[in-house]
Amino acid sequence: MSLTISVIGTGYLGAVHAACMADLGHTVVGVDTDPAKVEALNNGTAPLFEPGLDELLAKVLQTGRLRFTTDFAAVADAQVHFVCVGTPQMVGENAADTTYVYAAIDALAPHVQDGALVVGKSTVPVGTAKKLLTKLTARVPAGVTPRLAWNPEFLREGFAIEDTVAPDRFVYGVHGDPDSDAARADVALLDQVYEAPLATGTPRLVMDYATAELVKVAANAFLATKISFINAMSEVCEAAGGDVVALAAAIGHDDRIGAKFLGAGVGFGGGCLPKDIRAFMARAGELGADQALTFLREVDQINLRRRARMVDLARAECGGTLIGKRVAVLGAAFKPNSDDVRDSPALDIAQAARAAGGRVTVHDPKAIPNAMRTRPDLDYADTVEEAVTDADVVLHLTEWAQYRALDPATLKTLVAQPTIIDGRNALDRDAWRAAGWTYRALGRPHA
Ligand code: UDX
What we know:
Number of strands: 14
Bound molecules: uridine-5'-diphosphate-xylopyranose
Number of domains: 2
Oligomer: single chain
CATH topology of the largest domain: Rossmann fold
CATH architecture of the largest domain: 3-Layer(aba) Sandwich
Number of helices: 18
Helix content: 40-55%
Shape: elongated
Radius of gyration: 24 Å
CATH class of the largest domain: Alpha Beta
């Protein structure tokens, strides 16, 4: 049965969620405080690059089931309200900034009707849902019974639509006893929202608020740990003359380990993993459980060390100094198929190479506008050819398919020194070497 839904916050999560919910047949109103974002979305333009999102927006806007507004009053008849606002890292601190979540509840509460369910999707420090329910209770109109569930989101950028409509699992955090009538009613309403994906057999797990909040950060902490584990092995491989790519493939054959997320390289970035592990440590500290998560500090350090190692390798390949050397950087986004540059290893390395005296030029197929906003002092090129012209060293930092398809022989004619450092272990090493390049990589022996 189709429902009337509101989605509060139309950033990455909210824009995708609103479009996907409308595509499932629900009537959706997306709310954001930014009028420019709302206008663009109403015209079918997403505030970010995500494969398929503009097309999906165009399709569902045409049905009339989706619209965006800055007016919270427009959500009044919604049966389900999804809170999808961001929880960025606080400036100068590890903790997450939950201001927007509380502000969303403040703005939403006066418009919540009796029977409506508020559903948190944002990634929050454990304990937030309980506090939000208290806030909601204090602010809903008289006669309205407040209902709040926690339904964390596990979407990956680049696969956001697929992950929203066909996730690995749904997690519902409910208030109090999951067998109570109130909790069962909340579960039933969420089941209506996700009726179509649930019908395909997607697991649905019901638990308390705290566990649901923790599932999200625990999953991200595990993923970050897996990447830092293989990057730690990469450091050891470099010291011992081993090959981390062969090592990862071999341990990945063990089903208990699994081959995914063992890609060694410059490490993880983006708007989730780095800030989520830091916020998780900060919250564990508040709870007196900081010892349980001290290993995440090491996970963070290993991750950041790979960025520094990349700059060291570039310096070594340039004869011991980057001063005055031309450094071509392929990639600015934190991962391919995204224009997101938040905590991007590529941009961090580009900036560090520049700080070390390099003349750095950055190319990326999609992320240059965002990169220019955050790192305006770097130089940018529209084409790979322009970026690598006269380069003393080329750094491959985001594994776009376009870079894997490059012809090393053609590029060799443009550079000053045919040296490439593959920070993602994603290029065809043999092809680059055969074309006369010095090919270096993290965690692999130097031929
Ligand atoms: C992540 C989680 O995967 C997702 O479930 C959660 O909802 C949000 O955070 P995302 O940040 O979109 O998603 O990207 P992801 O694909 O997880 O990659 C994160 C970072 O790890 C990227 O910088 C990527 O390049 C890096 N990575 C990934 C590696 O360095 N090696 C790998 O093997 C995999």
